[in-house]
Each structure stands twice: as structure tokens, then as C-alpha cells.
Amino acid sequence: MTTLSELRQANQEGLLREKIIVRASMVGIVANILLVIFKITIGLLSNSIAIVLDAVNNLSDVASSLITIVGTKLAGKEPDKMHPFGHGRIEYLSAMMIAVIILYAGITSLIESVKQIFQPEIPNYNPTSLFIIGVAVMVKIGLGLYVKKTGRKVKSNSLVNSGEDALLDAVISFSTLVAAGIFLVFQLPLEAWLGAIISLVILKTGLSMLRGTISQLLGEQSDIEVAKKIQKTVMKFPKVLGVYDLVLNNYGPNRWNGSLHIEVPDTLTVVELDQLLRDIAIKVVREHQVLLTAIGVYSVNTKDKEVVAAQKKVKEIALSHKYIRQIHGFYLMKAEKKMRFDLVVSFDAENREEAFHEAVEAVKKAFPDYELQVAMDADFMEE
Fold first, then answer.
1. Please, where are the H alpha helices in the chain?
2. Is the pTM of this model over 0.85?
């Protein structure tokens, strides 16, 4: 369904994305190694725990960048028998590892800061050390903005996390300058307290990153705007009467598989339906870069006015119940006295099963002579 030229283009885009991520990570590694050397030297000479902790945090940034590079390389591997959807989710694991490193840095920093609070040491600042810290602040701001912007551009959580961490480092270093200024003017040693505050900020950032990555691995709700665009694209086909049950599965950044159901007239032949499904799949992958691995079909009664009236009545009954969001896939067979449809139950319902059965029983009362085949469904794009 996808042409060879399109496959080549997708592969080239993937390789370009990998190169961009690796380049941004290498810039981060070089910058952070230089900052580690400067900060540890200055911290030890000036007896400043905050500067030493700041250097340790920069060292963790080097590890983060290395993990980003390795994760990106592994995520770019071709699909195999064990992983037919590719290895893209490795990037989420690498982002999780970066979050864990940040948490570890925060915990160790907090422990050292607390020790210094109870056993304080007088810092020894000098103009040279303060100047270099100021330069480090500027470097970190530039690095953070560059890495974060690049991460958003190529949709790399690992890079975005690294960029946020670099900007946080800039704030931490600036805070060190503030503490130094207070000490030089008022002779108040706030190093240990500042170190504790820095540690708490690091921990908060690490937890936030970890929560976000775990949420992605568990399976977050897909981008609703993207889902709406896909539904709109499919609805443009003249023979499609409705689009339902859209599910998008993420297998890494920019890697989406999906499935959906469509309603079509019961007059379509198998040949016509087969061509329609192929046309839909091709259009969606070209316009939205989502591979539809399955397209289910609901047939719609179009020949009998009584059936159409019955469908309208069932819809009114079902939607009169608070947590029923939608009814679709309706089909009625008069001769067999059978009726089938799906009811979409909101996630807001305290008991979705109970809400579903209440609606089904109401329909049964209105159509006692019919055998009902009703499936409970969900709207995975529910807002």
C-alpha cells in the first residue's frame, strides 16, 4: 500500500532524526565535561559544597546524554520476529533512566547538604571562581535551550528531559552566585541550606520526568487533535457513513499504529468494500503517518424505512442515559427478529457495567420481541 519511494523517504527521515539527536547529545557531553572540570576545581578550592554538588549534577548530565545516544541507536533498529513493531519504545526507557539518574543525584545531594547543615564549613570565594560560575550559568542556559528545542523538534523525550535538566542547572548555578553574594556582603554562610533547596528541586524535576515517562509506557491517551483529523479524513470517503472506535498505539516517537471501525451501506459488494478499505489505509498513512493495521466494518440498513425509524428510537433511548456517549454499529434483521449495536459508555461512570446494562434493559423493554446483541464499547479519545 505504501510505495517504495515513501518507504525510502521514511527511512531517510528516521536516520536524519537519529543524527540530530546524537549531535545535540554530543554537544551536551562536551559542554558538561568542561563544566564538571571547572566546577569541581573551583568548589574544592573555595570549600563550597554547593559548587561541588552542582558539578556532580553536571556529571549526571554527561551520563544522561550518553544514555540518550545509546537509546536512540537501539530504537532505530529494524523490526524483527521478537519485536515486529520495532524498537522505538527503547527511547522511553532511556528517558526513564535519565529521570532515575536525576533522582539519584538529588538524593545524594540532599544527604551531603544535610551533613553540612549540622557540620558547617566557611566557604572561601574569590572573584575568579565567581566569574567562572557566571560563565557556567550562561553556557547552561544556551545548552538547555538548544537541547530542549531540538528534542521538541524531533519529538525526543530524552533530549527534552536533558534540556530541562540543563536549564535547571543554570538556576542552581545562579543560586550559588546569590549565596556567594550574601556571604561576601553579610558574612552569612547559606551554602548548606542552598544545597538542600537545590536537592529538593532536583528531586521534584526527576519525579516529574519519571511520572511522564511511565505514563507513556503504560499507554497515554493519544493526541485528540490527531484523532479528529484522522476521523475527518476517513469521513471524506463518500461511502463512509461513520467512523468509530479509533485506537492509536504508540511504538516510539513518530511511530503510530491504529485501528478503527467504519459504517458503510449494506448495499456495498465485497469487491467495493475491499477497495474502500485499501484506499482509506493508504490515505491515512500518507496524510497522518499512522499505519491502520485493522479497519472493522459496520453495515447500515438503507433499504427499510421501518428499520431506520427503529434505529432512531434505540438511539433516543440509549442516549437518554447519563453515561451513554454514543451508539453505533446498528443493524436490524426483521425476519430473524435480531438487533445488534454497540454502546459507548463514558469513563466517568462509577460502574460502567451497571450503566451499560441499564441502557440495554431500557432498549429491551421497548423491543421485547427482539433478540439483542449489544457490545459495551469505549471512546479512547474521550475528553
1. 4-46, 49-75, 90-118, 127-154, 157-186, 191-218, 224-235, 270-288, 305-319, 352-366
2. no
